[in-house]
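Table 4 source record.
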Amino acid sequence: MTKERFSSIAGRPRQGDFRDATVVLPDWKDCSLYGAATYTCDSAEIESAAEAEKARGATLDQVKFCLGAGWTEATERSSPNYVVLHNAVRPVAITLSTEQTDSKKHVVRLTVFVRRN
């Protein structure tokens, strides 16, 4: 993680303190940055809350496999619709949540937070 956090992938401005992200996860959409320290992306829309929960679980498994042993689930900070992963060595946390869209569909939202030192 660099000291400029996500500024190297900041695209054009959006409303408020949001910016488009120039790096988009494959098969995800609406990737954006909030400030210099938060990156977020939404999955494709999912019909039901139950399907979204299953998708969040599958995404959690993929993320944990990809990141490896240095990452753990912070169960004390998680809830049924919200999972927090943190790294003991780096000042980074990842959340996976399920959200309902304006069109009453559901998405899995991945958010990466870089804590300030």
